[in-house]
């Protein structure tokens, strides 16, 4: 009988991954088409992946990139911030508001494409962020009202993270009450040492732990919030590695948690504690033969897991200086902003130019 155990892959399928993301930019896989209302985030996964692979300018035309830039700008709401898709645009701004995660991915996409940011409505953006903050310090993805207040089920640390990064990008924290934001995130820390999505949620999770640590790191650096350093958090993160990483105790490995948990360890300054060989082996085993990464080995790929697999590999295997890194050729990742360091550096300079121009 044939051995049913799948063959482990050890070769990084760089060309396959490039072609996968190029295909997704032309047409999303069927499984991802339900996310059309947040198309900008899918575009970010694909364009940022090509950036990390060093293939964006090699494999796309100037005409394509200009078209993407125009499309992203078309998503900027008149009141500030960015919508997730043209699908979400109506004649009434109240029924098609901007969306915080979409604003984060729109800004990053414009930066990757090296689009001048003179059209960015920074005053409108800070007003939009303020309109999304609740009394408990959390943020809702869109402005609340009497029917749907800001303290909704989606008002969790993921949105706090996006708001912190947006504020960090524009160098303006007036769109958030920093003290309340910090207190909200700190109240999400559970008895396990990691972070849940909201206060009172008992179980911590890898993704919300990354978002909490990244947000606290930004607020500590720019707004004198407490440092996120914590030995019990680090202990929890280390315990999540079982080859690849699981999202919480008792779960199987999942490609995305190699980034969420590995990124959180990097934020705490302890990426060397990751078992790089075991994590790389798991990630490469989740590659699809035609490119992209599934959630786990033998799963079909999707843009979300495919991008985060590359981000995870970039954290621990970027460069080509030694045998362990040879063959990947990934750019270094800015772990806080989750974009290539090269793009993050460009974005800081571009915002400095725009802010300097507005003051002159």
Automatic annotation (TrEMBL):
Keywords: Metal-binding, Prenyltransferase, Repeat, Transferase, Zinc. Pfam families: Prenyltrans. Its cofactor is Zn(2+). GO terms for cellular component: CAAX-protein geranylgeranyltransferase complex. Coiled coil: none annotated. InterPro entries: PGGT1B-like, Prenyltrans, Terpenoid_cyclase/PrenylTrfase. The keyword Metal-binding applies. Residues 12-338 form the Prenyltransferase alpha-alpha toroid domain. SUPFAM superfamilies: Terpenoid cyclases/Protein prenyltransferases. It comes from the Eukaryota. GO terms for molecular function: CAAX-protein geranylgeranyltransferase activity; metal ion binding. Belongs to the protein prenyltransferase subunit beta family. This is Geranylgeranyl transferase type-1 subunit beta.
């Amino acid at each position: 009988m044939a051995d049913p155990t799948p063959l482990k892959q050890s070769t990084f399928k760089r060309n396959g991954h490039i072609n996968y993301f190029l295909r997704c930019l032309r047409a999303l896989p069927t499984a991802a088409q339900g996310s059309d209302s947040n198309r900008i985030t899918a575009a970010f996964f694909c364009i940022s992946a090509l950036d990390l692979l060093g293939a964006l300018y090699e494999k796309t035309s100037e005409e394509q990139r200009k078209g993407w830039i125009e499309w992203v700008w078309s998503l900027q709401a008149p009141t500030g911030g960015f919508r997730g898709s043209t699908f979400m645009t109506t004649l009434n701004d109240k029924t098609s508001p901007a969306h915080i995660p979409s604003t984060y991915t729109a800004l990053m996409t414009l930066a990757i494409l090296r689009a001048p940011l003179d059209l960015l409505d920074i005053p409108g953006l800070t007003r939009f962020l303020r309109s999304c903050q609740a009394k408990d310090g959390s943020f809702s993805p869109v402005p609340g009202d009497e029917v749907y207040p800001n303290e909704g089920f989606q008002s969790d640390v993921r949105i706090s993270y996006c708001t912190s990064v947006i504020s960090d990008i524009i160098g303006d924290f007036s769109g958030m009450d920093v003290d309340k934001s910090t207190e909200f995130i700190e109240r999400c820390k559970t008895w396990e040492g990691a972070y849940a999505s909201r206060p009172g949620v008992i179980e911590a999770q890898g993704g919300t732990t990354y978002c909490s640590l990244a947000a606290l790191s930004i607020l500590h650096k720019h707004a004198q919030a407490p440092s996120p350093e914590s030995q019990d958090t680090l202990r929890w993160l280390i315990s999540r590695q079982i080859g690849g990483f699981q999202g919480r105790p008792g779960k199987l490995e999942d490609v995305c948690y190699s980034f969420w948990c590995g990124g959180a360890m990097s934020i705490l300054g302890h990426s060397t504690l990751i078992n790089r060989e075991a994590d790389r082996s798991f990630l490469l085993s989740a590659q699809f033969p035609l490119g992209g990464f599934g959630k786990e080995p033998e799963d079909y790929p999707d843009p979300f897991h495919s991008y985060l697999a590359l981000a995870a590999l970039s954290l621990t295997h970027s460069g080509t200086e030694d045998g362990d890194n040879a063959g990947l050729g990934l750019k270094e990742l800015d772990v806080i902003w989750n974009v290539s360091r090269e793009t993050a550096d460009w974005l800081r300079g571009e915002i400095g130019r725009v802010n300097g121009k507005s003051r002159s």
